[in-house]
Design a protein that fits this description.
Layout (H helix, E strand, L loop, with lengths): L1 H55 L10 H19 L11
Amino acid sequence: MMTVIILSAILLVAGFVIINLLLKIESIDDELAEINLFMVDILTDLKAAQQQMSNIDSTGAFNSDDETGTVFRELNNIVNTLAEKYEIDEEVTDSE
């Protein structure tokens, strides 16, 4: 009789532990889904920024020898570095 009571108590405690762990896993899964959506938004914005940088200097109006051209070139390098890091296909080209 005592064995049944001890095993029942262990089973009850194990049930509470399992339910608690399941709730924690579901919470972490929800947070991961939110982070995933946030990262997709960031990558979409980065791709749009890269495309806009390409469109801005499509005519080659920014020369690298003036201050505006230098700033544009640095911004262009930053966008390309981020695109490489996050494996975005299009690359903004420098028009010198």
